[in-house]
Amino acid sequence: MQATYQALCEHGYADLTIQRIGDEFAKSKSLLYHHYDGKDELLLEFLSVILDQFDDEVPEDAGDDPAAHLDALLDYGVTATVDEDRERLTRAMTDLRAQAAHDERYHDLFAQSDEALRDHVADVIRRGVESGAFADVDPEAVADFVLVAINGARIQRVAGGTEGGIAAARAEMADYVQSQLARDADE
Amino acid sequence: MQATYQALCEHGYADLTIQRIGDEFAKSKSLLYHHYDGKDELLLEFLSVILDQFDDEVPEDAGDDPAAHLDALLDYGVTATVDEDRERLTRAMTDLRAQAAHDERYHDLFAQSDEALRDHVADVIRRGVESGAFADVDPEAVADFVLVAINGARIQRVAGGTEGGIAAARAEMADYVQSQLARDADE
Predict the structure, then answer these.
(1) Is A1-57 CATH 3.40.190.10?
(2) Residues in A touching B175 (Cβ below 8 Å)
(3) Contact: A114, B148; criterion CB under 8 Å
């Protein structure tokens, strides 16, 4: 997986070959060729591992404070500045996301990961609505909106966006949360 | 440009070669090779033309009604259903957007196009604030948020998203506009 990631970062999807993954592979190349027919088999396994890691990274429950939890989720998802390793990973994921526009196998993995993230956001909002911390919004609709913003920030971070633009969008989301979800907005 | 687009749609960026563009080119291949050194030269010219077309498509001023204009912009940018040709084009653009994560030349073209769209949205909001149609929001920040949502919807439309999810996000944006920008929200 490490060899796949290195080779993907170095060459990008378009110029990646199983030979180039093999070049990064410390063990014997023949072992690699024995197990995998082509670069997509390796990349799909890599993607599956990384998306699972992403799922594990999503901020978990912040005690009994749904507002703080949602805030942490937005900080995680709509972030303008990341360290170099993370930016490198975002570039690699952007390459694979583009493959999802052509190949069902990539599409299904991203769809599954997006849905898990979206459901996680919806759960937080639902708990907040039930506890009275949030106004009586539709948790599913808010979560769909948050997911769109997260995916927009992800692509802009590496492909065409500015740090200031994403930071301003994050601040504006805080205003949105305040006006739409904060309990006193509804009372 | 038509040959480049056909070849990009058929093969995707990764498997595209100037030979394959030549296969789609009704005139002589040697003419193509004479003018272009490689696929990126052709793709960058294609991208530049398409992004200009996108700029022309952005809904223009809806008379003196900034709220209706903003609504039209959101319908244009955060749309769940597009016709087959448009979906095909979005796939091709997603491929090229991924290249923007690796190649400055693609990056600059997308950055320029994103900024033009963002500035257009900011202008509409600024006019609405000045005329009193909108509350006293920061037009730049709202435009940054709208751009993130547009880019998120674009990628989800072809790579991992659902029609229902994007439609729900669009509806939630209408609520956001209503609560943040509608004049009576501030009075």
Answers:
(1) no
(2) 180
(3) no
Those residues whose C-beta lies under 8 Å from the C-beta of residue B35, and which sit 6 or more positions away, are none
Distances (CA, A) of A159 to A82, A168, B186: 14, 17, 36
Q: Find the mean pLDDT for residues A109-119.
A: 96
Question: A 121-160 residues with CB below 8 A of B?
Answer: 140-142, 144-145, 147-153, 155-156, 158-160
Report the pLDDT value the prediction gives residue A187, as an integer from 0 to 100: 45
Q: Which of B91, B118, B148 sits opposite A149 (nearest CB)?
A: B148
Contact flag A166-B148 (C-beta cutoff 8 Å) = yes
ipTM of the complex: 0.89
Q: What is the pLDDT of residues A4-40, one digit of tens each?
A: 888 888 888 888 888 888 888 877 777 777 778 788 9
CATH number of B60-187: 1.10.357.10
Whether residues A100 and B159 touch (CB distance < 8 A) is answered with yes
Nearest CA in chain B to A92: B101
Task: Say if A113 is an interface residue toward chain B (CB within 8 Å).
Answer: yes
B138's CB contacts (< 8 A; 6+ apart) are A168, A172
Contacts of A175 in chain B (CB under 8 A): 180
The predicted structure's pLDDT at residue A185: 44
C-alpha count within 13 angstroms, C-beta hemisphere, residue B67: 16
The number of residues in chain A equals 187
* All CATH 1.10.10.60 domain ranges in chain B, comma separated: 1-57
User: Any bridge partners for residue B182, and if so which?
Assistant: B134
Residues of chain A with CATH 1.10.357.10: 60-187
Rounded to an integer, the average pLDDT of B131-152 is 95
Q: What is the pLDDT of residues B5-50, one digit of tens each?
A: 888 888 888 888 888 888 888 777 777 777 777 889 889 999 999 9
**Predicted local distance difference test score (pLDDT) of residue B130:** 94
Say if residues B20 and B11 touch (Cβ distance below 8 Å): yes
